[in-house]
User: What shape does this take?
Amino acid sequence: MLNQHKILRVLQLISYLEQSPSKTILHLAELLDSTERTVYRYFDLIRECGFDLKRDGHNRYFIVDERSNGIRFTDEEATFLKELVLTNGKNNKLKDSILTKIYLGSELTMVASHLVNAKNSKVIERLALSIGNQEQVYLKKYQSINSGTISDRLVEPFGFTDDYTTVMAYEISSKKNKTFHIDRIAYVDFAGKPFKNSKKFVKQIPDVFGFSYSGEIYPVQLELDLKQVLLLKEQYPSTAPFIHYNQRKNSYELKVQVNDLKPIERFMRGMEEN
Assistant: This one.
C-alpha cells in the first residue's frame, strides 16, 4: 500500500506531466526534490494506473491530458456520478475505471485509493483486448495463494466472472482452465501469439469462496450461531444467499456446494480457536 507521502508525490508528478511543455527526468526530479531513479519508479506506477505516459524525440516526458477531450462534467454532475458509482457499484471491479474517467472529465480531486485501484481497470482493459483479438497474454507477477509464489503466467483468457473479480483463462504451462484474481495481477503484457487452445476452453465459475471447479464438487451443510454467520458473511459475502435461519432449532444453516473445502475448514478452525 502506498503511504501518504508517496501518493502526494505521484499526484504532483501527474500534474507536472500534464502541463506543457514536456519535461526531462532531471527536471522532474528537481520539481519533486527527489532522485531520477525514484521518478522512474513513479513512472511504472503511473503506467499501471492507466495514464498515457509519452516520451518525445528529446527524451522529455508528458501525459496526454484526457480532460481536454470528450465529455466534460460540472463539479455538481461529477460529484453526483461519483456517489452513484460508489453506492451502486462498490463491489464491481470496473468502479475505479469509471471513477478515473469522472475525475479526468471534471475538476474533482482524484482520491488516492482510486489512483491505486485504477491498476485493475488497466488489467481488465488489456484482458478484454486479448479476448477480442484472440491473443495470448502474460499475467505479470501473479500472486498465487495456493502455491505461495509470484510468477508470470502465459494464458489465453476467454471471459470474466461476475463483478470482474476474476478472469477465466487457459494456462499454457499446466494445460488447464483456471480463474485468476484481477487483484493479484500486477499488469498484463501481450505475447504477440494467437490463441491455439480455443477448443479446450471450459468456463470456470468460482464457488462462494472464490475457488474454481477442479474436477470434484463438495456438498457443505453446517449449523452456525449468529456470530459465525455474521463473520462468514463479512469474510465471504457470496455465502449469504445460502444461509437460512432454522426456527425450530433456533440456529442458522449453511447449505451450499463448493469446489474446495479448505476455505470453510479454515474458517471453522479459526472460530474454534477464538
